[in-house]
Amino acid sequence: MSEERGSVSTRIHARRERTHPLDPLSPAEIDAAVAVARADGRLGERTRFWGAVLDEAFAREVMASRQPAGEVRVGLVAMDHDLPGAWEIDVRLGTDPRCLAWRPVDVRRPGITSAEARAAAQACRASPLFREALARRGIHDVSLTVIDAESIGGFVPEKYKDRRLTWGSVWHRVSEDDNAYVRPVQGVIPLIDMATMEVLEVEDHGIVPVSEEAGPLSAGGFGRDREGLKPLEVVQPEGPSFTVEGHRVSWQGWEFRVGFTHREGLVLYDLSFLGRSVLKRAACNEMYVPYLDPSSTQFRKNFFDWGEYGAGPLTNSLALGCDCLGVIHYFDAAYLAGDGTAQEVAQAVCMHEEDDGVLWKHNDLRRGVNEVRRSRRLIVSNFQTVANYDYGFYWSLYQDGRIELEIKLTGMLSASGIEEGEEVRHGRVVSRNVQAPTHQHYFGLRLDTAVDGPLNRLVEENVEAEDDPRHDPYGNAVRMVRTPLLSEARAARLTNPATSRHWRVESADQENRYGEPTAYRLLLPNTTRPFARPDSVMARRAPFVHQHLWATVSDPAERFVGGQYPNQAEPGEDGVQVWQRQDRSLDGAELVLWPVVGTHHFPRPEQWPVMPVDRVRLVLEPDGFFDRNPAMDIPDPSADVQHCCTS
Prior knowledge:
The chain is mainly beta and 647 residues long. It has three domains: 2-105, Roll (Nuclear Transport Factor 2, Chain: A), CATH 3.10.450; 114-204, Nuclear Transport Factor 2, Chain: A, CATH 3.10.450; 243-639, Distorted Sandwich (Beta-galactosidase, Chain A, domain 5). Helices cover 9% and strands 41% of the residues. Strands 1-2-17-18-19-20-21-33-30-29-26-27 form a twelve-stranded mixed sheet. Strands 11, 12, 13, 14, 15, 16, 25, 28, 31 and 32 form a ten-stranded antiparallel sheet that branches. The chain has a four-stranded antiparallel sheet with strand order 3-4-5-6.
């Protein structure tokens, strides 16, 4: 253990043996799976990989003793550009490692690897076409140019429709330590073939001055640092209240497992509270970011950040005292890099406790008795950096059975260049010759529910005025009206604050003492909606954002809300809007909820050059799951004079 700024950290190290079927893949397992695939003899020298994933359905079979203990199945995605060809490869690890299946995939469709992005940027710097476009702007040292390889979904030119493509957003630095994202190079758009790493063409939409204003992020970059901030130390002299065994966590009645995948990053499995199941699986399943600006460097921007890049390779290694404060337990993670090697992210997931203010309180004025209990929450979090943006995912568990997800948005706005004094219709001026366009962030979540057992149903609740005058003699009566959503076709819903709309996930076979099904309530306080025309790429490419909640029957083949391979996909060909056309019954089903939370981001100058954190939330709270407040057994803080004192 080490100490820093009054904080303590512990970290699990790479394990030698698997302790549970749902444990995340270790570096050794990833390397072993790749070795088995290569030994099959079908992969050439120019093979690239996009992800290694644990077969969770098979892991569940092992847990149920329907498959051999110790056997692990891994899914790989490989692209051989010499053929060309791509496959999903099922690999078995254990006593008899082998490839079980090879399924062909369109070679254009797997996500963009970090290695491909670096190679595409280098190809641009070596391209005479690209150099000439920069020279016209007075930029001659291309080594200082930054190129972000962007997915091109929905905007593939017809003449290149059979190629695996990327395009480049271009930025300029005046020195090696300059912050490139404050100096967009407007109007220069390279198109790159990712198989050959050939720059096919460079669009030039006209010369716009590159900003001369710097945007340093390091301390002292904008003058003397603010003074007067005293030390704030978080200490737990007796250690944390949670216990950890491998990836299994116990805390204040909660039990769950911490997982990690290439596509989604942090995953939580098998959450139960006070011995009763709540969720089978919880993760941010997809992130879609459309830009709402028709300018030459912005109109193509609409990204499936998880489906086209992957959360795993973008995961930060978190630092004690900076990203995490307190008594911290870290989990390492691993992912498969594009070159076929396992990469480990040290301290990828942070877990700690926080004081959360008053949990409940009542001051009995007649008796002169004041009862108050303080709330504590357990937070499990990780951070991903997607080029200019940074996203934090914070799952919080509370002592009253509540679950919250808070998504933190920070980092740098994706800006474009403008002429001095130019009118900005679709964004906001944030610096000299720089505008930040209006855009949106949609987070498609996946919640495999298990409220008091595996079979659940979904019910919508809305406020309605009492329509029967016999029950409303004073004109003030309102009621909550419950509407069961018993089929997939009905379970595509929008929020409605005007009717206090929320949803109940009910047990199909358990009741509380009041005769109601035991349930959890789902609240979506942060949502937005598309504004693009229905015929636009943005509207057609991510149909899941047109609703705030979807529900389907659990199916191992239906894994990602926006589709398995969104990169260069035909808009809308796969995803939850396709699956729900089966209109399967949700009346007592293994239920998967797909909430879509988000924000409409109209930038502020105060978010430049780096954003203070914006927040988006989701809440799950018990609703008749218990017969009374489950937090009545929290200890009285007044028993500890140091923590509760009136003098």
